[in-house]
Amino acid sequence: KGRVFTSTMGSSNDLEAEGTRRMIVNGMLWAAGLPVPKGGANVDLVGDFQPTMYGFQREEGYWQKKKLKVSDFDL
Question: Residue 45's pLDDT is what?
Fold first, then answer.
């Protein structure tokens, strides 16, 4: 049988809470059948995290102006 993990987390700013990040990471490890480290996985933020409030960027060309590439997100 497969495993499923789900959450009713509301928005990206919920990820500011370490407990929420831990719940999601540990839940995904569990669902994948991987061991959850004692005390939980490391859920420290990597880089600058600035969540937005419940909305979308409406400025015309916002994402195009950023000129992001997949490689910009490599860890």
Answer: 93
- Per-residue pLDDT at 57 exceeds 80: no
In-domain check, residue 32: yes
pTM confidence score: 0.65
Give the span between the Cα atoms of 1 and 24, in whole angstroms. 21
Distance CA 24, CA 13 (A): 14
- Do the domain assignments include residue 1? yes
Tell how far CA 30 is from the center of its chain: 16
**Euclidean distance between CA atoms 56 and 54, whole angstroms:** 7
Question: Two tokens at 33?
Answer: 């059948």
Number of structural domains the chain divides into:
1
Residue 75 lies in a domain: no
